[in-house]
């Protein structure tokens, strides 16, 4: 069991939940009020929804051996567009559609740079990460735009027994899981991540697949941006989605998806996103100054990464050579 | 121009080794951007504007030097901005506690180097991606800042203040700060190390092809760990220069600076795949970013967020050019 790729992330999550319960015995209680569920765990789900959604898009990008640093900026742009449109008297539905269209365009742009021009993903998306936030500032003219629209409020703060935000994120997660694991699509994505050239020679249209995952990541970032801005009823071009790309990448990595591409685990991403959000909540609830949260994040990330590192399992393995044979195929060393 | 002249020019161009082309391209862009300023504004031509590019970006130059080492091996260091912030914080808090300035500087440099060394060790011995390890390093360093203090701490130490405000007069009332000299010294040392020492040559070899370097018997492990220690040291030193520039320590100093640094290094012609690039290029890259900022402040009516958009556009242009050049060479 210790060899299962989700063992350490799940263990981390359980430890965090136990710590929370120790400090706050009512943490695990869930109440039903006015047809809405409330409680510590529900709060984690609700606040973690944008990170989870972005992490789902990021998982596919990372599976193709890419990375998307621009998602935070794209989220800020989505919020900026939607709020500006609503503030100027527009309809909330049109505003959201408009914002998502722009996000798809931004995803197309990232995908174009990576798949057609062949620019390294980290740099290609760094362009939009830098310029995108500037663009969001341009849209809001440097102001924080506040809106008050009942429909817009639903996407981030609304409830349908459970928070709507987490329902959206989970259904996207399930849809992606069904689509990629139920068909050959997931295998094709992994084959592109393992060796783009060989996949192309084998008849896989790598370019289309890579391009598509960036568009999908852009779309996820857009929806997450709408959730973030709707939750606070405002668009803050400077701070909306700040560092969320890092959280999403961490969630993906904690979940056991390798940054070297070639394999991914959506269940791992779900656990990873929950670990990140639970960690945040835990730090708040045990009374550590919120600013120190970054130290905890760093410790958890390093711990989980070290425990998952093939070198560590080699160290374990050499001591227990008599144990069951490794079921996982040995790692191909990145040369 | 007659045919003979054209041929002579072409000969001369071809004599310039291909590998210098990206740096030359960066320099041309620098001249063009600076030229735009010269044409548009009367005061842009004053030598002080040019010198101020170095004065205002001394810390960025030092950070870019460290990042160049890391990127040359094909790695990346996302922690530089946070380590710089931690350095300002350690300097400010130890000085406030009454440490002698020299001890405080040593503490800062030791902390930065140790952090870099630790990250390098994790990257090398546990085979974890540099991106993730240095990201964790960034979180750790930022978090430590806030553990020291959430507030900004101002630096009142007389020695620090005099170092910060002291200027060296060049001709015509053009003045330099000591930070600039330190930054230039770092650049010279880096050029020496990269081109004239075994360590430096191994850095290029590891970036070119790590397995070949290892098969040649080069100490790849030592170098892979070493570059992160170098980058940590440079981040700490850059942080010290930044604390001289701001005369305060604050956990929110230098937020997002790692991206500016990476942008400067890439604009300077260093390939992120490793093995290709020069410290000089990174310095010119920093100067390009600095000039863009100066231009926007001269313009006055343009808001500061245009800087980000311009930097993004420049980065894009450079990456596409590099891509085309690599493709033609291949």
From TrEMBL, chain A:
Transmembrane segments: 37-62, 69-87, 93-114, 121-139, 159-179, 209-228, 240-259, 266-286, 292-310
Keyword Cell membrane: yes
Bilayer topology: Multi-pass membrane protein
UniProt protein name: Sugar ABC transporter permease
Entry GO MF terms: transmembrane transporter activity
Species whose genome carries this gene: Nocardiopsis sinuspersici
Gene Ontology cellular component annotations, sorted alphabetically: plasma membrane
Key words of the record: Cell membrane, Membrane, Transmembrane, Transmembrane helix
Subcellular locations according to the entry: Cell membrane
From TrEMBL, chain B:
Keywords for this protein: Cell membrane, Membrane, Sugar transport, Transmembrane, Transmembrane helix, Transport
Molecular function in Gene Ontology: transmembrane transporter activity
GO CC annotations, alphabetized: plasma membrane
InterPro entries assigned to the protein according to its UniProt record, in alphabetical order: ABC_transp_permease
Protein's membrane topology: Multi-pass membrane protein
Protein name in the entry: Simple sugar transport system permease protein
Membrane spanning stretches: 20-39, 59-90, 102-125, 131-150, 170-194, 225-247, 259-289, 309-326
Compartments, record wording: Cell membrane
The UniProt record lists the keyword Cell membrane: yes
């Amino acid at each position: 069991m210790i060899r299962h790729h989700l063992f350490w992330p799940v263990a981390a999550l359980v430890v965090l939940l136990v710590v929370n319960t120790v400090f706050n015995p009512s943490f695990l209680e869930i109440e039903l009020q006015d047809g809405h569920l409330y409680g510590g765990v529900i709060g984690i789900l609700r606040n973690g929804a944008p990170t989870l959604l972005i992490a789902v898009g990021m998982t596919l990008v990372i599976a193709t051996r890419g990375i998307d640093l621009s998602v935070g900026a794209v989220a800020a742009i989505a919020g900026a567009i939607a709020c500006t449109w609503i503030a100027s008297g527009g309809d909330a539905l049109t505003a959201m559609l408009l914002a998502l269209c722009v996000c798809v365009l931004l995803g197309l742009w990232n995908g174009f740079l990576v798949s057609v021009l062949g620019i390294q993903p980290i740099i290609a998306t760094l362009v939009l990460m830098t310029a995108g936030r500037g663009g969001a500032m341009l849209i809001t003219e440097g102001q924080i735009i506040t809106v008050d629209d009942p429909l817009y409020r639903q996407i981030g703060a609304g409830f349908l027994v459970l928070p709507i935000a987490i329902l959206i994120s989970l259904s996207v997660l399930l849809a992606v899981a069904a689509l990629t694991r139920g068909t050959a699509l997931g295998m094709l994505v992994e084959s592109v991540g393992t060796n783009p050239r060989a996949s192309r020679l084998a008849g896989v249209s790598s370019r289309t697949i890579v391009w598509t995952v960036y568009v999908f990541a852009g779309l996820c970032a857009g929806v997450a941006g709408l959730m973030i801005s709707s939750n606070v009823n405002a668009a803050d071009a400077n701070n909306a989605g700040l560092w969320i790309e890092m959280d999403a990448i961490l969630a993906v990595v904690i979940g056991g998806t390798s940054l070297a591409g070639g394999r991914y685990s959506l269940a791992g991403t779900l656990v990873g996103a929950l670990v990140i959000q639970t960690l945040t909540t835990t730090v708040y609830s045990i009374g550590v100054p919120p600013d120190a949260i970054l130290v905890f994040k760093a410790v958890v990330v390093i711990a989980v990464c070290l425990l998952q590192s093939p070198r560590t399992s080699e160290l374990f393995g050499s001591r227990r050579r008599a144990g069951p044979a490794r079921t996982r195929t040995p790692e191909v060393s990145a040369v | 121009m007659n045919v003979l002249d054209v041929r002579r020019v072409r000969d001369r161009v071809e004599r310039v080794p291909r590998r210098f082309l990206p740096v030359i391209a960066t320099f041309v862009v620098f001249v063009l951007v600076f030229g735009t300023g010269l044409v548009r504004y009367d005061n842009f031509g004053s030598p002080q504007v040019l010198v101020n590019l170095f004065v205002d970006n001394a810390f960025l130059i030092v950070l870019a030097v460290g990042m160049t080492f890391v990127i040359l091996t094909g790695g990346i260091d996302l922690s530089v901005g946070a380590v710089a912030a931690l350095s300002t914080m350690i300097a400010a808090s130890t000085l406030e506690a009454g440490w002698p300035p020299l001890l405080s500087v040593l503490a800062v440099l030791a902390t930065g180097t140790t952090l870099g060394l630790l990250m390098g060790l994790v990257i090398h011995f546990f085979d974890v991606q540099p991106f993730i390890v240095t990201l964790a390093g960034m979180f750790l360093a930022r978090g430590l800042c806030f553990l020291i203090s959430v507030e900004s701490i101002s630096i009142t130490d007389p020695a620090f203040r005099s170092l910060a405000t002291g200027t060296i007069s060049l001709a015509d009332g053009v003045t330099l700060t000591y930070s600039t000299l330190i930054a230039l010294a770092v650049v010279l040392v880096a050029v020496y190390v990269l081109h004239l020492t075994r360590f430096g040559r191994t850095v290029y070899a590891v970036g070119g092809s790590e397995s070949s370097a290892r098969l040649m018997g080069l100490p790849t492990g030592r170098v892979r760990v070493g570059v992160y220690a170098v980058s940590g040291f440079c981040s700490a030193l850059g942080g010290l220069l930044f604390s001289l520039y701001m005369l305060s320590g604050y956990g929110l100093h230098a937020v997002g600076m790692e991206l500016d640094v990476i942008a400067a290094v890439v604009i300077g012609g260093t390939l992120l795949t490793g093995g290709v690039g020069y410290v000089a290029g990174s310095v010119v890259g920093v100067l390009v970013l600095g000039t863009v900022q100066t231009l926007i402040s001269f313009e006055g009516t343009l808001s500061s967020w245009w800087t980000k958009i311009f930097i993004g556009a420049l980065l894009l242009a450079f990456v596409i050019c590099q891509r085309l050049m690599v493709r033609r060479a291949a």
